[in-house]
Amino acid sequence: MERRLEVDPWRIVETGFDAAAGPDCMASESLFSIGNGAMGGRANFEEFFGGRTLQGNYIGGIFYPDKTRVGWWKNGYPEYFAKVLNSAFWPGIDIYVGEERLDLSICRIEAFRRELDMRRGVLSRTFTAVLPNGVKVGVKVRRIVSMAEPELGALSYELTLLSESGAEVSVTAFVEGDVRNEDANYDEKFWEPVALDRESGALTMRTKKTGFEVRWTQRTAVKAAGRPVSGRNVSENERIAERFVCTLKTGETVALDKFVGVASSLNHPEAELAAAAESVAQRAWAAGFEAVLAAHEQAWAEKWAGCDVVIEGDEAAQQGIRFCIFQLLQTYTGRDSRLNVGPKGFTGEKYGGSTYWDTEAYCLPFYLCTSGEEVARQLLRYRYRQLPQAIGNAAKLGFKDGAALYPMVTMTGEECHNEWEITFEEIHRNGAIAYAIYNFCRYTGKRDYLAEGGLEVLVGIARFWAQRATFSEPKGQYVILGVTGPNEYENNVDNNWYTNYLAAWCLRYASEAAEYVAAQYPDDYRRIVAATGLNAAGDEFARWREVADGMFLPEWTLEDGETVFLQQEGYMDKEQRMAADIPAEQRPINQHWSWDRILRSCFIKQADVLQGLYFFQEAFGGETIARHFDFYEPRTVHESSLSPCVHSILASLTGRAARAYELYLRTARLDLDDYNREVHEGLHITSMAGSWLSVVEGFGGIRVGRDGRLHVVPRLPEKWRSLAFELHYRGAILRFGLGTGEVRVVSVNGRPAEVVVGERCYRVDDRGIQVKVG
Amino acid sequence: MERRLEVDPWRIVETGFDAAAGPDCMASESLFSIGNGAMGGRANFEEFFGGRTLQGNYIGGIFYPDKTRVGWWKNGYPEYFAKVLNSAFWPGIDIYVGEERLDLSICRIEAFRRELDMRRGVLSRTFTAVLPNGVKVGVKVRRIVSMAEPELGALSYELTLLSESGAEVSVTAFVEGDVRNEDANYDEKFWEPVALDRESGALTMRTKKTGFEVRWTQRTAVKAAGRPVSGRNVSENERIAERFVCTLKTGETVALDKFVGVASSLNHPEAELAAAAESVAQRAWAAGFEAVLAAHEQAWAEKWAGCDVVIEGDEAAQQGIRFCIFQLLQTYTGRDSRLNVGPKGFTGEKYGGSTYWDTEAYCLPFYLCTSGEEVARQLLRYRYRQLPQAIGNAAKLGFKDGAALYPMVTMTGEECHNEWEITFEEIHRNGAIAYAIYNFCRYTGKRDYLAEGGLEVLVGIARFWAQRATFSEPKGQYVILGVTGPNEYENNVDNNWYTNYLAAWCLRYASEAAEYVAAQYPDDYRRIVAATGLNAAGDEFARWREVADGMFLPEWTLEDGETVFLQQEGYMDKEQRMAADIPAEQRPINQHWSWDRILRSCFIKQADVLQGLYFFQEAFGGETIARHFDFYEPRTVHESSLSPCVHSILASLTGRAARAYELYLRTARLDLDDYNREVHEGLHITSMAGSWLSVVEGFGGIRVGRDGRLHVVPRLPEKWRSLAFELHYRGAILRFGLGTGEVRVVSVNGRPAEVVVGERCYRVDDRGIQVKVG
């Protein structure tokens, strides 16, 4: 593999720049994206760029309900498709040297270095460029989206004249509100201007239809050759702009610091937006760029505490996992339970909506282990807040009595995807939401969340499954017809094993949870019964158990007489081929084959039966998992970013070490190495949690076992000398050091915890333990 | 049933008008539509109307490729969705009496009569209206879209002053080019103006993207109180307009005759459009309205010759069937093999594209029997012309070596629908196209079309099926996975019996056809072999036979031990309910149930297994058909306009007379009685051919039998005293008179033909035969 970017444990580094390499330029814009959970954006150049670019700045929770109807819209289809909105371009700096505009697409570039410091969350860039008029300049830029101040973006832009004669330089700092989404169906504009406030250097825009208002306030400080320069307000239309003109001699520098406050009506009454944005920008301006940067770096240091992963012996893997952690930390902070983990985070506009089942299946364990219980709890609360919409969503599909179907994709709880085979049929997502509650309780060892909100969610979900399963007379069992499993390369299948198994599990778990809350939190239970009408019309638990116990689970007997759980009925009628037999030029098949050809093939997009075996591995055991891995993995094309990680974990678990490592590299460096040639569209944020799981659960072998205790069973790739990581676990922050034949664990914050190594349970405190393993 | 329109054997009549009854006004606009195969439009008022209206004027073959993409477009999806385009409003007349505009939505209407004379193809309207200013006028309008001149629309508009004092009347004749489609996703305009030629009263517009150019030229003649009035050219923007002002005394009339030539770049080089439209308008103007009308009526008389149906004893049924025939005659004339039978004809804009499998399955037999061989042959040629696109379409889906998949919906041969479950999967349409060739040969008794174009089409279709079927190891048979059958209330099912049966039949028929052409037309065969590479890589016929003979056809054993062909695998796992048990307020289910609920239900939209038994009734026999009818019909909700007709025929065939009649009324008066409350959107043109089939094949019992001869087995509804109809059959025009216990047949044009009545074959000539039947 030839890598375009340097391998470095803490940095993403690009040296050299070729404006003609369009997709690579855009890929770098994705890879160097920065954000702070509340907002973020692509690493577009501050100054004008005439080459290929995808400009993108996004504010969490702000979206546009796009219309996607055609003549024959069917009943129950979602009203809209939620587009993640590109918002005002806040980092803008427009440079003229003499009459010539600085534009890297037409300059001769003598040096170029772009760097993302993942430890500090700083995007920086230095370059030397010769403009078409022959003037040579050196530029150094540092930019942050402040982790300390959620509403602040800041940058420092320094330009030094390197030519032998002096020149007049004009520097215009701007925020441009007239932006578009690339995926707008009719090049429609999604924002309308509300006010351009020249006096205070501020702009207010409002989203069409959804009516979100956002205020941007810009503050600047400019020095040329060390002396302050005053600017001229050149704002117009939907653009705040301040122009600074100075004459530089050779070697002199003009330095512009810029602070932009971004306040939205998600967080402020509209009447207070102006004051809020102004306050943020003004305070930052008064403190100065270096102070703002210091606060930001301090906040990043705190975020990294307790979640770093250190791999010795494999720098590419090291960089890959840090990149994943960095992206996850800057996409979701847990500050706001209305936000979630968008599949592209703040790095691109593809995919509508912000919340997929990725959150529950992949991201929740990451935040639970690395950011502590409260952040993960916010993700659970997000779904609890949206329970009424989930009930409404199910009602639209004909379900009743408080049955809840969580949306496949959402911003606000309403479904906002627009393909029936996904929206209506990929209902296994409802199970993942229940599983996340279970997973949270299991890992934290606490079940109080069931009383807080979990049980209500579980009741709604159980009611959905109890109604969605129907009785098949020929089979004499309950069946779930017309679903799409996690393998979206099959649509509208009957009796998907994963869905049926998960549904039955949900029904049982909801009963158990209800019994637990009734016994332990009787007041909450009364409140919940009153709110949900649980058992009002008879014994709901009995019905749930009947459906769970009577659930049909398809199996297939292989030629060797062993059985496997069958992905869905009829799967074996397909021509059985192996993914390895697909000619390389036809991979990925989703870019080369028509949709029906994919549907008709036996090829699997991502873990389906294996997703179930992963979730419930304690219930199945290694031999069963191994048999299914050997059956399904060779049929899997891994064309979802969520696929390699689960397979890597299962490969580790079943001793398929080489395959585990191969699959790990594919997940952890998916974007850095641009495996699927699509990074220009944005990064695969949610699957980065899967990469982390591959390391910690797969190679680290961390798992809460049937005994409810934390187990560690290291299975390091051959190349790795050691693997160290930290986990938040029941109040303790545990640092694990896994080397060849050895496990070390220490409680970093001194709080004790129990950890099982081998067959034995150890109490770990600040003195740590060191255990030899086979 | 309370009927809004009068029942009359030859006319559609509406008396009285309530501008506030929006949907009814719009329904009348649909029901009184007129056209001539090349163009047509809704019965919008000529003068301004401020109430609810759907303005629609359509030109055959002219469409717009609308964009319907969302973020995750899948491979092989069609590039566009073809919208039928609303074009310039040519019949416009704007009337002012004094300062007051004539607008029926704000007038007091003292008399109103709208009439569609189906025999003559004339839309007329008379009314007396009191304007808000108190002036009373009487208006009489006659309008035609000339059946004699495909590019001519003409109307006569007479307004008489009925108030006691005189008034100034201004009459503006106009053609308005600034029109929209109601179903435009973003209210986008699909036409752009090219030229407004004030001198010659002409307008040229061009469609966006597709670049069709159309020229409208208007000519007028106005008399007030018998004296010519000269007009003033008030054209502007995209509107040709000529204004005539006159002062009328009580009882005096202003009469405007208007002729509009409509020439399109489909039929003329762009440079000649202006001359073409001018010539049409000018000739008509010179001849005068009455002469234009006479030529039009003469053309209509010729169209009706040989296709009328006369029902004695049931005036509603009589009107219903004439309405169907009238619509079919004015929608498709066979003049132009690039055109086809759009599902809404010229009566509305709903549904994209113009050609569905309706053409082959339903319309072809109608035109074959009523308009003679040449018109039907044009429909076959339409598909032959589009064979290269069908091969391209299949190639997009991964098929090769000349396999052809005809599109589900098309304008030009390219697929232009946008739902994968239809486009990619509803592939049975490919079988209907083969069946139409077979049907044509069977009915005409001639197989020369196989050599002309049929065989090439059959080879492409057979190659598709041979590749699309795959071998199931567990079944040891060929299977067809992932299809949508005619019952579109199931998507992506495996082994739909109808599809599998039809595929196997196609494979055999294509072999037979090839052998026939090889033997009878060796030169053509050599040409076809060279063009298609037939058998170039081995014995294709052997492969076709292997797949046909090995085709899996699902069956199910009922409780009584009898078997039925099973609609698709897994159908019996569904909850088995009967359509009669669905509460009335939930019907039609497609307006009340979410799409997934419909998919999961056992309810059938339209004939599926039964469609196959209808096509191949000779292969199955009455007992088998009866058993399947009794199994499937009660599960059928008939929510396609194509459903009741096939069921009515099968009910007749199997002696279920009462049900046959019920279903017939539902099909023949579907639009006149607006069963589904959707006539305001346009009429169901293609299903009208099904209504005709219900009469002729169902009640008339006309069928080409296994012996290749025309059989007649009358099964008249109890209420009907007699049924008479004419058929084109192998050169003869046969008039059938079916009464109680009697069949009369005579050759109207004197050409002899053989007809089987009872067990005996008769030679019928101009003396006719009269046979007693049981």
Automatic annotation (TrEMBL), chains A, B:
<dbReference type="InterPro" id="IPR005195">
    <property type="entry name" value="Glyco_hydro_65_M"/>
</dbReference>
<keyword id="KW-0328">Glycosyltransferase</keyword>
<dbReference type="Pfam" id="PF03636">
    <property type="entry name" value="Glyco_hydro_65N"/>
</dbReference>
<feature type="domain" description="Glycoside hydrolase family 65 C-terminal">
    <location>
        <begin position="703"/>
        <end position="761"/>
    </location>
</feature>
<dbReference type="InterPro" id="IPR011013">
    <property type="entry name" value="Gal_mutarotase_sf_dom"/>
</dbReference>
<comment type="similarity">
    <text>Belongs to the glycosyl hydrolase 65 family.</text>
</comment>
<dbReference type="Pfam" id="PF03632">
    <property type="entry name" value="Glyco_hydro_65m"/>
</dbReference>
<dbReference type="Pfam" id="PF03633">
    <property type="entry name" value="Glyco_hydro_65C"/>
</dbReference>
<feature type="active site" description="Proton donor">
    <location>
        <position position="488"/>
    </location>
</feature>
<dbReference type="InterPro" id="IPR005194">
    <property type="entry name" value="Glyco_hydro_65_C"/>
</dbReference>
<dbReference type="InterPro" id="IPR037018">
    <property type="entry name" value="GH65_N"/>
</dbReference>
<feature type="binding site">
    <location>
        <begin position="605"/>
        <end position="606"/>
    </location>
    <ligand>
        <name>substrate</name>
    </ligand>
</feature>
<dbReference type="GO" id="GO:0004553">
    <property type="term" value="F:hydrolase activity, hydrolyzing O-glycosyl compounds"/>
</dbReference>
<dbReference type="InterPro" id="IPR008928">
    <property type="entry name" value="6-hairpin_glycosidase_sf"/>
</dbReference>
<feature type="domain" description="Glycoside hydrolase family 65 N-terminal">
    <location>
        <begin position="27"/>
        <end position="265"/>
    </location>
</feature>
<dbReference type="GO" id="GO:0005975">
    <property type="term" value="P:carbohydrate metabolic process"/>
</dbReference>
<feature type="domain" description="Glycoside hydrolase family 65 central catalytic">
    <location>
        <begin position="322"/>
        <end position="692"/>
    </location>
</feature>
<feature type="binding site">
    <location>
        <begin position="357"/>
        <end position="358"/>
    </location>
    <ligand>
        <name>substrate</name>
    </ligand>
</feature>
<dbReference type="InterPro" id="IPR005196">
    <property type="entry name" value="Glyco_hydro_65_N"/>
</dbReference>
<dbReference type="InterPro" id="IPR017045">
    <property type="entry name" value="Malt_Pase/Glycosyl_Hdrlase"/>
</dbReference>
<protein>
    <submittedName>
        <fullName>Kojibiose phosphorylase</fullName>
        <ecNumber>2.4.1.230</ecNumber>
    </submittedName>
</protein>
<keyword id="KW-0808">Transferase</keyword>
<dbReference type="GO" id="GO:0033831">
    <property type="term" value="F:kojibiose phosphorylase activity"/>
</dbReference>
<dbReference type="GO" id="GO:0030246">
    <property type="term" value="F:carbohydrate binding"/>
</dbReference>
<dbReference type="InterPro" id="IPR012341">
    <property type="entry name" value="6hp_glycosidase-like_sf"/>
</dbReference>
